[in-house]
Amino acid sequence: MTVGATDGPNSITPGTTNDPRYKEAMACMQDGSWPQAIEYFSDLVRDYPNNRRFQNALEMAQFKADVDASTNVRAKRWILPGPRALLPLLVLVVITILLFYAVRFTINVLGPLLAEAEQTTKMDTALDQARNLLDQELFDEARTKLQDEVLALSAQNKPQKTIHIQASGLLATIDLDEQVFERYQEGVALMEKEEYGSAVVLFRDILTKRPDYKDVAKRLTEIEQLAKLLELFLQADLFYKEGTDQRVQTIATYEALRELDDKYQQEAVEGRLMELYLAGAQSILSLEPPAPERLPEVLSYLNRLVQIAPRQEPGRSMFRMANDYQAGADAYATADWETAVNNLGAVVKQEPDYLGGRAVELLYPALISWADELQEKGETEKANEMYARAEELPVSDTDRARSGSAQTAPASTQASAVVTIDINVRSGPGTSYSIIGGANQGTQFAITGKNPSGDWWQIDYNGQAGWLFGQLVTTENTGDVPIAENIPQQPRVVQQPTNTPVPAPPTAIPAPVSNFKFNSASLVRCDPNAGITYVQGRTLVGGQPQNGDWSVAFSYAANGPVVAQIKAGPHPGYEGWAQGFFSHILQTDGPREGNWFFWVVDPSGKRISEYANVQTNGSGGSCQNAVIEFDSR
Predict the structure, then answer these.
(1) Per-residue pLDDT, 575
(2) Phi (first) and psi of residue 205, to 5 degrees
């Protein structure tokens, strides 16, 4: 029953409903002749395999035939039901047909569309993943992702052409970014090697391709800064090697370098600066003559040094001393004596010769002035402490300090002796005892005992017992001084044989009747003394010791040139002497032989007494300690 297509104007159009077999098949469908319909539709599908209508009609005829077979409907006896019975059947048929076409539509139309959509989703996901890998600079992984999961699939499906274009563009971006990344890494390496010129070329090339790539712009700025730092460092190093003549310029260059970047070559720069600051300060402090007016420069150097290294020595000590001196000098200028003493005292304690001794020169008057203020306020003890400190300073004249110290010295109950002239300290109470040392005028000793006659004092002399002749010292608080225990036995004086005739014992010069105020001059006695030769005595009026405006002079001859004269009785420097007492030392280190004349003079130097003559002996003699009295009777 197959009907082929024919040529000519009346031929049937292939694969259309004009085919007679299609009309026959549809008539069989209306009659319920399902097998005949199936046969016609099968021939049409075979001849026109791409015609979907013929295929769908064949499937419907087969479906109807299957339904009849399952319900035992006889094809040859077609009985139309009544209207009420036909309606449910028609609804069922329509629903069935709709379900059938829905299934076929899903399989034939929606299925491919859903598959295509799923593939597109996968490629979009792979594209996003490739972008993420690119952001992480995982270039090979991003490239593989695009090639395997996007480009390969999108090339097979024309509707996915947009994704293919995106993937191709991203692949080109990957190649560019990888190239830029490699140049960036090379530029960073060149920076670390301080090859800044080559690094700049690479970074600028990167900016032409990717203006906002990473921190390239920042690195170019950094390179410019580093180049400037390097230039300053090399310039400072050149100044440094030129020596002290370029010290100021060297410091200024290093400081400019630190101001730009205090971490650049930090150890080297700070080391050089500390050296230069210290040298600058020392050069000013060692100037001759000293230049205290330049101390602010010293402080400037040292202040900058301690900012870099607060604990560095000697910088820290020098800074503290310079600060103390400046503060002390400022306080001195404003008469703030306490502040001046505290600050200048700290300097002198550490370095007495600071600024060529200028600190001492300021400290001494500051101590005196503060002590005077304290004394006026009644703070005697504190004032005495300041006077004593001033007295210990190495200055040429400490008279003001000693005077103030004496005025404010606290009262003492300790028995003491103050030496009135330079004398010997002996091992026992007499000139026959050995000399164990000496004592200068003004030296004070604590008295520990006396001899039975009370004319020698035992003292503590450097930890051992020493003895001083009572008439050559002034004493205080001696009322309860006990007789010393264990007084050494007096040594025997062995006379050396001599052919020199022993002179006759001195005799008193008779007192002639005269008009002199002191008309009597008597040599009372003359004792041996191996340690010192001296003459002492008194001026008397009517047999009683008396002071006046007269002095006792002596010479080698009667009315000869005056060798020395001294006021009788207490006078400046000898306040502790008794009434009318005087003393002349002829030799401090042993016996001295000679013929001496003593007399009293008035303030004009005119003699107002008779002469007293003393002939002293040399070693082994019996007269080295003479006592003379001038009397007015």
Answers:
(1) 67
(2) -65, -40
List phi, psi (to 5°) of 151.
-65, -40
- pLDDT tens readout for residues 170-188: 888 898 888 899 999 999 9
Q: How much is the CA Rg of the chain, to the nearest whole Å?
A: 67
Closest-CA residue to 96 (of 108, 86, 88, 106) = 88
- Dmax (CA) for the chain in angstroms is 211
Task: Give dist(CA 607, CA 380) in Å, integer.
Answer: 46
Closest CA to 276 of 309, 297, 250, 237: 250
* Phi, psi torsion values for 287, nearest 5 degrees: -65, 145
Q: Is the pLDDT of residue 117 over 80?
A: no
> CA 426, CA 539: separation in Å to the nearest integer?
28
**pLDDT for 111 beyond 50:** yes
Query: Taking phi first (over 0 means left), then psi (-120 to 50 degrees means alpha), and beta for anything else, what does residue 265 get?
Result: left
**Angstrom distances, CA of residue 215 to CA of 199, 476, 614:** 13, 93, 112
Can you tell me the mean pLDDT for 246-267? 91
Task: Flag whether the pTM goes above 0.85.
Answer: no
81 or 530, greater pLDDT: 530
Distance (Å, rounded) from C-alpha 302 to C-alpha 315? Answer: 6
Sequence-distant (≥ 6) Cβ neighbours of residue 375 within 8 angstroms:
383, 404, 407, 408
